[in-house]
Amino acid sequence: MFDTVKNRRTIRKYLLKDIAPEMLNDLLETSFRASTMGGMQLYSVIVTRNAEMKEKLSPAHFNQPMVKNAPVVLTFCADFRRFSKWCEQRNAVPGYNNLMSFMNASMDTLLAAQTFCTLAEEAGLGICYLGTTTYNPQMIIDTLQLPELVFPITTITVGYPDDIPSQVDRLPLDAVVHQEVFHDYTSEDIDRIYSYKESLPENKQFIEENKKETLPQVFTDVRYTKKDNEFMSENLLKVLRKQGFIE
Ligand SMILES: Cc1cc2nc3c(=O)[nH]c(=O)nc-3n(C[C@H](O)[C@H](O)[C@H](O)COP(=O)(O)O)c2cc1C
């Protein structure tokens, strides 16, 4: 049971084979069956197939090669604009230019995005999420001409897999699941939970390559630093204001 999900891995290399528009539309339409707050469908998806548009999007994603190499790039956006316009056209006053509404639209957007990914993988396609979407939102907003109350949440590159990489580990079930109430982690729990990850040769190599002492240091000092996160948080708030989601 659940073999497709159990065997899945992120795919970053794609064949030069296109995805038929009918198939893509079918996958998208089916993914919009995902749960959605109040049935409002607070998202829009921008489909990029055009090479010139991929070229323009590429720097926003730090030139990750998947953007130019995938046949299809999908930018999933939180969208309270469509619904707000409907309200205004029907003598209703929308109150959705606030953080709560951004959260609600973001949740809707990610549910649709992940449902799309699961369906696409079931159909034999490979996907990669691009977290860079929220690192450089303004570049994406400009390129895709996103108006007020529309905000890029995530990007998914999709295509037929070329390379099938090995699977990435996951934490043991009891590290993540708590029965009835949250059970805080003792230092012994932390040692046990992360021991498999720390034992992997690729992670030991990762520590060496980055000249660090421990695996978490690779995250805190190199990959996801406080300085970068603070800078990007400020930027995110600035762009959220500009898009009219917060005052
Ligand atoms: C929110 C999010 C952002 C991600 N951003 C990137 C990215 O920018 N580039 C990339 O190559 N992979 C990205 N990934 C994929 C993860 O690296 C990948 O899911 C993780 O390493 C686990 O591997 P697996 O999906 O093969 O199990 C992202 C995944 C998520 C959920």
Automatic annotation (TrEMBL):
SUPFAM superfamilies: FMN-dependent nitroreductase-like. It comes from the Bacteria. Residues 5-160 form the Nitroreductase domain. The keyword Flavoprotein applies. Pfam families: Nitroreductase. The keyword NADP applies. Signal peptide: none annotated. Belongs to the flavin oxidoreductase frp family. PANTHER family: OXYGEN-INSENSITIVE NADPH NITROREDUCTASE. This is NADPH-dependent oxidoreductase. The lineage of its organism: Bacteria, Pseudomonadati, Bacteroidota, Bacteroidia, Bacteroidales.
